[in-house]
Task: structure prediction
Amino acid sequence: MKNLTIIDHPLIRRDLSVLRNRRTDNHLFRTTLRRVASVMAFHVTSDLALTTERVATPLETTTGYVLRDDIVIVPVLRAGLGLVDGFLDFLPDARVGHIGLYRNEKTLEPVEYYSKFPRSLGKSLVLLLDPMLATGGSGSAAIAFLKQKGATKIRFVTLLAAPEGVRRVASRHPDVRIFSCVVDRKLNARGYIVPGLGDAGDRIFGTE
Result:
């Protein structure tokens, strides 16, 4: 799909193996996920535009650079929190919003239960973070909600995805670029990505 970018890097392949391993404890899972997020942040932002400014070095003035766009990071609660610090390592000036979704057991549709965003979303590049893109229901709903709040430039960043989820987000939001480290084989009958890595939120916070 033209709006899907795979972030393929030897260090990510190595760390994905750690994250997939069911023997990996919660502390190692969190620290590894943060490290992967930093590598992802480097690639997700590789084409950002810059503006110039004059910088005074100890010897003379020279040309320096600053990001043109304001950046807003929005994790999908709760698993998305595991990616935030890795992105902030590269984007220390970024503002952070939050969005919480749950699935209605009758309709099976995502329902927003919490949101808090910085002002001026329409003037910012929004990086929506969620480690898992499974069915695509929550991801599509989060993107739609951000658009309702005025966001016009959105990038969806996920650690690993299922083909079903990629297709759903791409079909509903063809203007949104999707970044993933890998697209796994499929969803199982319970809606889990396989081979996957289990429930990312549970493994981050030790609530298995």
